[in-house]
Amino acid sequence: ELLQKAIKKNVQVCITTQKNCIKNASVYAIASAKEELYNYVLSASENALITLRLAKVTSVSLLTKKAAIADDVKSIFDRQIRCGAQYPISKKENSLIKVVLSPKGLYLFQKIYLYRPTPVKIEDNIYYFDCSINQATYYFKRFGVDAIIVEPKDVREIADQMIALMEDGE
Q1: Which burial class, exposed, middle or buried, applies to 111 when counting CB atoms under 10 A from its CB (0-12, 13-18, 19+)?
Q2: How many Cα atoms sit within 13 Å of 112 on the Cβ side?
Q3: CA 11 – CA 8 distance, rounded (Å)
Q4: Cα(83)–Cα(67) distance, rounded to whole angstroms?
Q5: Cβ atoms 139, 115 nearer than 8 A
Q6: Which residues contact residue 36 at a Cβ distance below 8 angstroms, ignoring those fewer than 6 apart?
Q7: SS3 170
Q8: What Å distances lie between residue 118 and 25, 31, 142, CA to CA?
Q9: How high is the mean pLDDT of the chain?
Q10: What is the CA radius of gyration of the chain?
Q11: Number of Cβ atoms within 10 Å of the Cβ of 54
Q12: Ranges of the chain with pLDDT below 50
């Protein structure tokens, strides 16, 4: 209730969790994951974008200072809410993620809905996603060689390392 009040009054808060205290946070939204398993608090504090699971918040204190969230941060949070509130998106993540699916990969994509990113474009067996790198990597790593992340290159390298670890049994 205090977080919603802070949003409505446009004031900053101090958020305490079991592990730390976030001072001078400007709360943008309380959003649920697409699967509606958990709710998340999206806020900004001192040039940092913060995503917290609501259940981890132990206390909230309203402050008198006005909340301040830049328009570019608001658009990042809107994108995060659209793609999956539980997956933070950094300011640097601004390109589409390109994934090539094999026939088995396509079958898995149709069957495994939990945390599945939504494609923004499909060309034959090539799928494009406007989601966080974490979401794409964690979702597609279970597909192994049946889903290859080809772009961006740095994401492909991370995915290749995860597949190698899975093959090694780690």
Answers
A1: exposed
A2: 16
A3: 8
A4: 25
A5: yes
A6: none
A7: coil
A8: 30, 17, 17
A9: 88
A10: 18
A11: 13
A12: 170
HSE on the CB side for 120, CA within 13 Å? Answer: 11
The CA-CA-CA angle for residues 19, 25, 28, to 5°, reads 115
Please tell me the pTM assigned to this model.
0.78
Cis peptide before 152 (omega within 30 of 0): yes
3-state DSSP assignment of residue 23: strand
pLDDT attached to residue 14: 94
DSSP labels, 43-101: EEETTEEEEEEGGGEEEEEEEEEEP---HHHHHHHHHHHHH-TTS---TT--S-EEEEE
Both structure tokens of 83: 């793609």
> Which single residue is written with the structure tokens 């608090």?
41
CA distances from 61 to 17, 30, 89, 143 (A): 12, 16, 26, 44
